[in-house]
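Q: Here's a chain of 371 amino acids. Please give me its 3D structure as tokens.
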Amino acid sequence: MNPTYLKSNLLIGLKSKKNQLLIILLVLFIIFSLFIVEKQKIGDGAKSWENYGQSLQANANYFDSEMLKRPTYKSTYDNLNKQSQELASLQNSQVFVDPVQYLTSYRNLLNTMQAGYHNHYAGAKTLNVPSQFFIKQELNKTDYLIKHKIPIFMNNESSATYLIYILSVLRTIIFFYLSFISSDSWIIDLRHQSILKNIPYRFKDEVFGKIIINSTLVFLPLLLGMILAYIFAGLRHGFVTLNYPVIFYSTSILAIPLWLYCFLFLVYLSGLIIFTTSLSLFLNQLTKNVYLTIFIEVILYALLFLPKATLKWLVFLPFPYLNLTDLLNGNLANKLNLNSINLLTGYCVLLIWSIFLLILFKYLAAGRKKQ
């Protein structure tokens, strides 16, 4: 790769006021969203369990003596009462800040919730019970905490739990950041031909140069923000081990340590950067307009919200893999009922489409040079 070409493009990218603003906003967002978590009590277990307790009580009151004569309804009624008892034990452990008792009570409650699905909670029509998939996720995380003797934290304010929370937000919105960063990847060359015209470069210099530059503009602020967020939350609410569990999906639900999850997140992000850069290069050359490039990429992301019956037949297209949250925690695989949809699948699909887009870009760019 021509280092002079790379350096020239990197300087242009770093001097861009748009890129500077995006980098600053990303770092500040990652660090100081902690104040929003504190004020809104996001992830506060006490508040969520209070609401679920009210739902349990309301549904238990629906059952009358006639309904309880039927074994199916009686089974649901007994399950709701058992959940109420275990929920009371869990809430007591919150009051007395007993993480060990909380874990035990939580696991018992989750198992009872799962048992209620055996008869599909017959008679409890308005019960706000979590999905079976969510229950499996939480059971895996709880078993991991018990096995490794790690105390559970009942909020998103500690160093590890805040980092987990902010990663969950970033997984959903990071594509938009990538889109804005890469939206003028090729427009820059069109606007600064006077700088680059005397520098010999090949097609691969263009492609790998843009990928390296965009990776720099993404990974540096992201890593800086993650490290500072962990430290900031730790100083305010206490430091928690990076072995704290996070839900991850391969072909089944797993609980893995936070440090490993961060690594896998960054690995997949590298594939997303390659795809977004390739898409932006192609759209820049096709439309020669930054805003139209961003608009088309946003439309592509919006296709994620197609009905699952339609989405199931489109898994070989790139857009189902743009939301990292649903992909990495298994919600996408569960939604489509396809166990093979995971990080590796998404990475491979994005790379294949990146190659295809770059071939189209090369063809269009070659046509421009001939003119």
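Q: Can you summarize the key feature?
A: The beta strands are 245-249, 253-257.
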